[in-house]
């Protein structure tokens, strides 16, 4: 198969910062609780006139430039998101227009916090079979728009952002080695946004019942997360024919530092081999893994030849893991 890897990266978070101290004024919570239970200290929140495609655009132009390309060169755009600008047109189509990426095919992918790794898997296989030469893959979410800021169980956990990569052919031996994508649809009830779709369209009743906000069974999702972070990593390493000792950098979905710590323990990973930035951005859903990846690149934590594992879990329920040789 053609070696397909990451040839450009970019990220964007909105300017406005919402700290734990700010949240203390909004709901019955405190900095100590939030930090000790989640590791989160602050999160970025989109301006009223910013939607997901705007966050995605900022990350995209950086990634395209770093790849040494222009938007007109793009063959494919995939946006992983659960907070599209609207149901349709897709956020990817809106972005295609903004970028002027006239020849690119464009579609959105919905797999919640696993969306970025799902999108990488889908696009990589399309490039490997020769369907396209390059693709712009973005994880972008504006969770603040679907968060109930009167519910302390959820509002402390989420933030807004976007991360982007351009993928294309790389040198022999480099690039993506394996993907492990999965779902446990039976757990769908544990994490959902109930209304606004064809099952329960928006109405005065759904607004009244706050059914346009994220509903989550935190403890159950926590258990699922701890389990699949470990099993998905072990499975993807097996597929790649690698051992966990070979991981140079582990990039987990940034939802809760306790979930990451438990994965580190089970996988025997020390801090220097794990990327953590949940304290600054909170859980940004599909943007979380690319934000962490791009920040790791910017900090010089990834060098050519490094084996990087990305692993996420989220609504669906879903999980997604990948191994790339940088
Ligand atoms: N401030 C103060 N107290 C709080 C807060 C808060 N912000 N939130 C909850 N509490 C209270 C609860 O009401 C509860 O009180 P009670 O015992 O009197 O009922 C108490 O704190 C403990 O609650 P737990 O649910 O046991 O807390 P836990 O240690 O499990 O932490 C958390 C909760 C942080 C939500 C954790 O379960 C978690 O991180 N779960 C995973 C969530 C996740 O990752 N979701 C995103 C998936 S990604 C996606 O697809 C969007």
Automatic annotation (TrEMBL):
Domain Beta-ketoacyl-[acyl-carrier-protein] synthase III C-terminal: 237-326
Keywords from the UniProt entry: Acyltransferase, Cytoplasm, Fatty acid biosynthesis, Fatty acid metabolism, Lipid biosynthesis, Lipid metabolism, Multifunctional enzyme, Transferase
Keyword Manganese appears in the UniProt entry: no
Keyword set includes Transferase: yes
Region feature (ACP-binding): 254-258
Domain Beta-ketoacyl-[acyl-carrier-protein] synthase III N-terminal: 107-185
Enzyme Commission number, as recorded: 2.3.1.180
GO terms assigned for molecular function: beta-ketoacyl-acyl-carrier-protein synthase III activity
CDD domains: KAS_III
Source domain of life: Bacteria
Enzyme class, first EC level, given as a word: transferase
Associated pathway: Lipid metabolism; fatty acid biosynthesis
List of catalytic residues: 113, 253, 283
Catalytic reaction equation(s): malonyl-[ACP] + acetyl-CoA + H(+) = 3-oxobutanoyl-[ACP] + CO2 + CoA
Subcellular location: Cytoplasm
PANTHER family named among the record's database cross-references: 3-OXOACYL-[ACYL-CARRIER-PROTEIN] SYNTHASE, BETA-KETOACYL-[ACYL-CARRIER-PROTEIN] SYNTHASE III, CHLOROPLASTIC
Family in the record: Belongs to the thiolase-like superfamily. FabH family.
Role, per record: Catalyzes the condensation reaction of fatty acid synthesis by the addition to an acyl acceptor of two carbons from malonyl-ACP. Catalyzes the first condensation reaction which initiates fatty acid synthesis and may therefore play a role in governing the total rate of fatty acid production. Possesses both acetoacetyl-ACP synthase and acetyl transacylase activities. Its substrate specificity determines the biosynthesis of branched-chain and/or straight-chain of fatty acids.
Record comment regarding domains: The last Arg residue of the ACP-binding site is essential for the weak association between ACP/AcpP and FabH.
Subunit description: Homodimer.
Protein name per its UniProtKB record: Beta-ketoacyl-[acyl-carrier-protein] synthase III
Annotated organism of origin: Paenibacillus wenxiniae
């Amino acid at each position: 198969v053609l070696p397909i890897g990451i040839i450009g990266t970019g990220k964007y978070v909105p300017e406005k910062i919402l700290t734990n101290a700010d949240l203390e004024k909004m709901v019955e919570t405190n900095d100590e609780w939030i930090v000790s239970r989640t590791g989160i200290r602050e999160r970025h929140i989109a301006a009223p006139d910013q939607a997901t495609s705007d966050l995605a655009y900022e990350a995209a132009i950086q990634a395209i430039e770093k790849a040494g390309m222009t938007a007109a060169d793009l063959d494919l755009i995939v946006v992983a998101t659960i907070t599209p600008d609207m149901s349709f047109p897709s956020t990817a189509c809106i972005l295609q227009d903004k970028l002027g990426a006239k020849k690119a095919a464009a579609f959105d992918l919905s797999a919640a916090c696993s969306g970025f790794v799902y999108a990488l898997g889908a696009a990589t296989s399309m490039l490997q079979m020769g369907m396209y030469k390059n693709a712009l893959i973005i994880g972008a979410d504006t969770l603040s728009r679907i968060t109930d800021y009167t519910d302390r169980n959820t509002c402390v956990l989420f933030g807004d952002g976007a991360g982007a990569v351009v993928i294309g052919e790389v040198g022999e031996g480099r690039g993506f080695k394996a993907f492990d994508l999965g779902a446990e649809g039976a757990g769908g009830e544990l994490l959902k946004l109930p209304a606004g779709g064809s099952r329960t369209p928006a109405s005065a009743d759904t607004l009244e019942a706050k059914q346009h906000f994220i509903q989550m069974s935190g403890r159950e999702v926590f258990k699922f997360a701890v389990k699949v972070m470990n099993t998905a990593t072990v499975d993807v390493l097996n597929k790649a024919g690698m051992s966990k000792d070979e991981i140079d950098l582990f990039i987990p979905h940034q939802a809760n530092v306790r979930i990451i710590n438990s994965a580190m323990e089970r996988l025997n990973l020390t801090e220097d081999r794990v990327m953590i930035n949940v304290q600054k951005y909170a859980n940004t859903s599909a943007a979380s893994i690319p934000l962490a990846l791009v920040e790791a690149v910017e900090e010089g934590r990834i060098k050519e030849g490094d084996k990087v594992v990305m692993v996420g879990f989220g609504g669906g329920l879903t999980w997604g893991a990948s191994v790339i040789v940088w």
